[in-house]
Amino acid sequence: MERLTGLLMTELRGADPRTAGADDVPEPVAVPSMGKAALKGPPADRWCEVAAALAAGESKRALAMLDEWPDSGEVLPDDRTLVRALRVAALQLEHNWQPVAGAAFLTSEATAALASVAPNLEAAIAAVADPRLRRYAELAGQTLPSLLGARTMLGHLASTGAAQRNALAHGADEPWVHRDLGPDAALVLRSFDVGNGHAVPPVYRTLLASDLRMRAADPAGARELHAEALHRAGTEAVTGGPACEGFAELLAGDWLLGPPDAAQRALRAPAPQAADLDAAAAHFARAEDSYHRACSRRGRAAAALRLAHVARLRGRSRECRRALDRALDLALDAGDGACAALVRVQRGLDALARRGMADLPEADAVRTWGASVGSGSWARGLRGIALEHSASWLEAGDLVRGRGALLLADRLSDAVEVPERADAWAKLYRLAGHDQAALLLTDVRMDALGTRMRGRPATEHFGDLLGFVFCAQLFHHHALTLGDPGLLTASGVRLDRALSAARALPAGDGQLAAALGPLAADLAELPLWTALQQARRDRAAGLPDEADGHAALALAAAARTGNGYGTCAALVELRRLDEARTQARRLDEEGRMTALQSASLWLRLNEPVAAARAARDIGRRGPEPAEPWGLPAIQAELRLQLGDLDTAHDQAQQGVRAYEEHRARLARDSLRSASANSPVIPGLYHCALLSRLPRTSCVGAPAAAAFDWAERSRSGFLDAVRALDSATGYPGARASVRAWLSAGTRWSARYEEELAGIREASSAADRPVRPAPRPPGPAANAPGPAPGTQAKSRLARLAAAEADLDAAEAAVRRLSPAALTSARGGELPEAARIAAALPTDTLLITHHVFDEDLVGWAVTRNAVRAERCRRWAGEVTALARRFHAGCAVGDSDGPAAAHTLTKWLLEPFAAELDRYRRVVVVPAPRLSLLPFHVLPWDGDVLGARHVVSYLPAASLLVRPRPPQAPWRQARALLVGAPAMDPQTGLTPLPGTGVEVASIARLLPRAELLTGARATRGRVMAAAPEHEVLHLAAHGLIDDLSPSRGRLALAGTDELDMADLIGCTRAPRLLVLSACNSGRGTATAGGDVLGLTRTAMITGAQGAVVSLWPVGDDTGCLVMTGMYERLADGTAADVATALHDAQQEVRSMSRAERDHLYGRLAAAAGAPPSAAGTRDSEALSCPAAADRDPRHWAPFVYVGA
């Protein structure tokens, strides 16, 4: 019976669940037999079996045994009371026991199960006549539940306190922020003190109470009780002795390691002082010795686990591994399944820390244990530890380990439901800076919570309702960050649903009240931010009048809601800067901005003195920037405006270095692109660039230094290019990297497709956003999921894309690990090296457009010259888009825009343009759609007498180019005129069939795929064997979903960007003879996402793409003319061949074009008439004159 007491004092660890020498107890991860045979023998033996399961943390095994307990009239009442107490203990361990005490909500099922067995249990225990049975019942039915409840409540209070401190740091002033949590903690402690029966050994109860006081931030009270317990230990026969000493030493050591449960959490920060580590190690060593004397392998395992953590904190990884191995062996020998599971998880996390990979089979063992015999809540707690490590790594910018810890967490438990799984992944992408993924996963979680709440009273799902409200806030935050009007409209729907759901919540909860106020304010201010973002989108699209109209709507909405900051933003968009300064002064005087907001706004208004005053208070009046490059970015811009160029450069360089180190750790191309999609990042490069340009015009070293920074700012896609270049050595390395890049593109496309569904659903609903919530009314039923969505299936689709990418990434980590960390920055070639790579007859022109500055460079073999002028980036971008529209559809504003652009972009380099015939344009991302070759120049267009080609980054000029055979010997795959299924709604393109048939006659080694043979499968199979890949088809491009760009093939097949990366093998030439195949989406960070970027990532030496819809007949003529010149050798390169073919078509009349196309069609056996354009939508535009750019100019050559 002494063994039964030792087992039920679970925290003391005085008795092992498995007795020494026993061989009939299953391994902790095995599924035991749960038959009645397990309960043979006298009641004491049966109680010991259940208690052993409880001590092992195996609540499911204990409950299975209790389910088989005889329930007959022969069972004595006192025995029946003990069985009830044991069942309460087992249920508590199953639902409310975790390695890290925290704010866990019991499910309604768990609450019901406890309620069914707990009524009047305390009175029944007090009525037990046998004092020994009463002690057992008190330990199981009172001490353990009250201990776990107290830990949970204190963990909840600690979390609330942390939330209060965080809210105060961000300037919050709600009542709950100032609430004193001390009385709540005192109430919890009193409840525990009176909730234990008198039969519980006092020394055990006192040690438990001491630890609770330490968790309640009462170290003096904790140490007083600890000393009292040690004093009494020598006088109590039951709980005195070495096990009690071991437990006391464990507690004393734990308290020196920092926050509660630090050793279980295995976190490296915050690290204690060296002296505290030495003292803790001494306590744990004495604990292990005490438990050794007590013959407790379970206690020794606990001590070894803590010694492992001390070694971890000291940076002694081998010592840590040895201690963990010893802890696992001891736990398994003792039959302590819960401890063994914890050690396995820690070993997996340590493996992640060492080599970036976790041992997933160990996670599978833990999952099997938790699902079969172990504790469900303990398994969830282990998952929580992995998630905590994931967040820690992610906050440090280590995405590889952060993702690894999250994957480990997902493997630890099968019982994780959709809301919790989606929440964990949303946090990952939020910390990684991928707002699109975070928004979508937050929406999945909100859907799932709504489904789970449907039809249930609010009192049963308080946590779900609170999560539902917070999801709406997070969705709105991400939509604002993305600046997407469509997603902001969807945000309004979700904010309204959350407010409706919140009316069913019980009143008086401070945390809820704090959430609902901002929620209602967000909904009221939604018209402001939606109109403002639409204004910015209109301006970027070259629609200044529409932009000003939406900005005026935003200004009116700001006035209605009293949002001063929004008023400033709208005034800036309208270029009413003096009024914006007046408003900013008012906001400062009223204290309505944090120092960070104030400094940023004053810098935006070009008022450095006011910005300097605010910058001094950053961190004292409101928070600091979340990213390590945030403060350097502010200081760099401040010093630049004050004229302190050297300090500005130093600060910008510091910020860029921090950002690029972070970017390198992100590993994935999609995450690297998203990480830069913030104005702060290009602002850093901009400051560095301008700090090297002391004058408006300069040559030599200053111009070259500024050029280097401009190149560094917009070559982010080179990370992906270099990933492929780095794949050398091992067989299959390049294939693995190619598959990884392809899987990454497909991952992005999946997320973009889901986001498109959100936009479409909001648009279809056509639901106006109300400026304020409805007046309070009767509580409504909790909302269900949004129409047409199923959270589980949505998450499954995303998880499939994640799994494919994870598998591809694992292969790269084995075969080409350098591809995951291929960083740019200092590895980029300098201006001198790029200049040396230029042919002697070639001029490189590039531009940088940001804020109020336009900088251009002319680079030749012998010189670098820079020209800088003050031009608002919004105006430059708008003119470029208007000119592009003029070329594409004959917009009447095009000519006026063209002359202004020529004056700004080309005339500063007139001298160089007069001397050089070949021009390589490296456009700024904002100008990626600008057809420089069509800009007016010297009485004609630039492309009339100059061979113009394009590059996304000048660094591509220095890439090695292998020697090439004559073009007639090239193996070419020619795909055209696919037989599309009528249900696609796409018109046939006979011109593409004529095109590829004509090219096939020029290239003897060509393979032709047309009609029903032009399927995705055939293209994917044939492409790797060809050095020229020519695809002539409908182009399906979506500016809001750049990774979903694709070409229509036979039937309903499509060749998407992921396919393009996967099937090509660094082709010599990739031609996308389709509409808009050269269009892309410019990010704030200097990247342009789209098919052109994909073409370069494939390793293609050059690509031909289109900037606007291509005529089916004239496209055929230009492409055929280009290949004619390559095949007969009259053009030395693709750029020249394309230029000459374009000029030939430009010189033709309509009749001449029709005649030439008819000849080619006859030779191909096709009808003499072509379709309109190779666009997915019919265009409505005026007829084009013979020399109109629509006929001859849509194609551009991208390559060195």
Commentary on this structure:
Strands 1-4-3-2-5-8 form a six-stranded mixed beta sheet. A six-stranded mixed beta sheet has the order 10-9-11-15-18-19, with helices on both faces. It is 59% helix and 7% strand. Among the domains are: 529-624; 831-944; 967-1175 and 1186-1199, Rossmann fold (3-Layer(aba) Sandwich). A hairpin with a 5-residue loop joins strand 13 (1046-1048) and strand 14. It is an alpha/beta fold and 1200 residues long. It is built from 51 helices and 19 strands. The termini are far apart. Helix 7 (131-169) packs parallel to helix 9, helix 15 (317-334) packs antiparallel against helix 16 (337-355) and helix 37 (733-765) runs antiparallel to helix 38 (791-815). The protein is elongated.
User: If you compute it from the alpha carbons, what radius of gyration comes out, rounded to the nearest whole angstrom?
Assistant: 35 Å
The low-confidence runs, each spanning 5 or more residues with pLDDT under 50, are: 20-39, 767-788
CATH topology tier name of the domain at 967-1175 and 1186-1199: Rossmann fold
Which structural category fits the helices and strands? Answer: alpha/beta
CATH architecture level-2 label of the domain at 967-1175 and 1186-1199 = 3-Layer(aba) Sandwich
Largest sheet: 6 strands, mixed
Number of strands: 19
Morphology call? elongated
The percent of residues in helical segments reads 55-70%
Put simply, the count of helices is: 51
Beta-strand content estimate:
5-15%
- Text of the CATH class of the domain at 967-1175 and 1186-1199: Alpha Beta
Terminus-to-terminus distance? 85 Å
Main sheet strand line-up: 1-4-3-2-5-8
Report the average pLDDT across residues.
Answer: 88
